[in-house]
């Protein structure tokens, strides 16, 4: 018997642990114990948030083992892997010690705290996570293989070279009805392992790299923790620990196989290692099973062990019931090898090696210009491909854009879990490998199917006119099965799927939430000899981490876990998993996503010239003339292109300053105007900047937002009351000898969620400001360009002729373009100070973009569409108000609407949390909606102007359903 395999946690004085943390590491705070089988781990966190992890090793763990732990940590960190830093004591040492209750001395190390949680606590295991963890395990193994340590062999209970001995020693601690099953399986697995053990690479490994010991921090990064089991073992044992964990958590061999695929991609497995993996997994499960019960016998107060004991039995039971040979066949396929060593697959079709792939993915250029929405597109692309290749391949794993539903409330299954081989009817079909054949004949004489089974691998081929002699029974590799049936005139299709062992057939196409690979719909690509498409879920998670790392927490994004959007069409956005959403937030993309004319005109200009606006070219003159023709008033006859809304507002403020010779500005509270220094100075949105109102420069003077719904002034006289506030301020500034250069305001309060200022407000304000020589700036960045439906400009709708207008967003359809529209004499004032140009704003491609947008808005009647479709939404939501008291008001007009949610229609208490929940639930219905206003309780509805009536009605119905779900 080895005593080191029966270790109860050391008893320690908690006050002494706290004193040690304070004395040696300068950290004082309450202790929180974290689970462990044989050591003690305490989180110490002070009131200031600073903290550390105190790890007390079992007294039997000697100095060499602790040093090995620290050396492994240093090694991982030096190679760029994330693992908690080992802290130094007040005396500069890497460890210290503590006296346990029984008088034994235990070694202690302090570790950096990771601000995150173990993967096992925060997420269910899925295929994408398994693959990523497989890669991480391989990377850790690769780094630890280079460790320079003398004797890293340790007689550990968890080192799988000791597994059978551990099981045999501790088997009596298992409940009696489980002992024979566990011991028999462990001995069988050990014998299977012995057959290949001599060929297995050995090295230093982590020894327990599972979802319990990988933490995800707030930035989505993965940290490797708990290096207490570092020792020399088989490299394959490192991966086996993860596979056992995944099998215990999911009971899904397809997910387990993806971890193997991830590992092999990073560090190629040998055939012997693949052969050893499942025996090692079974042994790991057996060790966990007996160890958990043994730990409870010697340490009955160990809640950590008690909570895990049944789960650890399940790990064993799930792994032991599957024959190693059949699992090994699946793992070989996952690693890109034939399911038997030495096997060479035969071609299913004679000319398959000359096949061409049809790209049906979300980014496919073949599906541009809306071709993906046309019925029969897949077959049309197949015919085009077969004009130059004998076989057309449609790949496994592809989210087919051609199958995406444009009705976002009824998402389609788009992710292929099959391989399709298209060719001319009558081509011979042969068996790719030998095994047991099952024939599925169409009783009507049409296309049939066969299944070939070998070592737990089941391959199904559909679309065959079977030869009469083909029958159930043994079949040889390369045997003729029949000919491809004609699916439609001149086209035949084989659909090839794979199942794992006795799994029931799975769906051939999965929806966006479905697993990329399942036991009943596993990847046959290796057998067929075709490429597969990587799981888009992995790419999405990687993109989130890269973005977070690159731009940091200050960069705003929609949703905590946003979909990865890679294509748009009209008012639709499509993610990489094949789900479409109606875009209800994108007032930037006025004419819709991927408008063909817009793209063509810009592309053509980029082939000609793109430079800065100080050169002479037609595009600049054409755009400025087109915009002047749309100006709010003939007096506004001059346009200066810029590159953004922030630059437009900045320039507008500069023009006001130089034209009046003054610097003071009157701005409206709760507004957002941009991020340049000047634009930010007049922005007072507390959501964008919580300290905005208190941090304005002395030349900015604030007035209340003219919100007659929830502001200080309400009712029919609200407009006059709010206007008097501006008039009083303008008069006061003039009396102080610092009259305002300008008043700046959005004609419709976009940041407030589309609130329309009360009648008469803007014209009265203009009169008051101009009475003291000031100018009026209309910030039309969000609401201009026909969005309001009843008028092209918000100022026109309010009966206001501003002095300066700033535009952007819709002006460029997400291209870098904005503009300032004003009078000639105001621009001439700027010329007296100097010249102005904007590198991107007036560039030829930007100018062409600007002209194209104005042309398309006019030609397609998008302003009229905004009025009609916006009315459907506004009327529809108002009709919901009697049964949904959460709806307080519907603000705005046209396709700039705000649905304000309140908990009480009398007190107008903002329903901020409910609004956030509504946005999340609407995403599930296929609508992208976000909250606005200082209170974040107004649902913004400002979609592309091409939004359809059908999508408007679906949105109202979806909102009805979501609000009903919240109420219930």
UniProtKB/TrEMBL annotation:
Q: Which residues form the Aminoglycoside phosphotransferase domain?
A: 31-262
**Keyword annotations for this protein?**
Aminotransferase, Pyridoxal phosphate, Transferase
Q: Where is the signal peptide?
A: none
Kindly give the InterPro entries that the UniProt entry links to this protein.
Answer: Aminoglycoside_PTrfase, Aminotrans_3, Aminotrans_3_PPA_site, Kinase-like_dom_sf, PyrdxlP-dep_Trfase, PyrdxlP-dep_Trfase_major, PyrdxlP-dep_Trfase_small
Which stretches of sequence are listed as region Disordered?
Answer: 510-532
Task: Report which superkingdom the organism of origin falls in.
Answer: Bacteria
Pfam family, any one: Aminotran_3
Keyword Nucleotidyltransferase present in the record's keywords: the answer is: no
What GO molecular function terms would the record report? pyridoxal phosphate binding; transaminase activity
Q: Which residues form a coiled coil?
A: none
Protein family (similarity comment) = Belongs to the class-III pyridoxal-phosphate-dependent aminotransferase family.
This one is known as Aminotransferase class III-fold pyridoxal phosphate-dependent enzyme
* Upper taxonomic lineage: Bacteria, Bacillati, Actinomycetota, Actinomycetes, Micrococcales
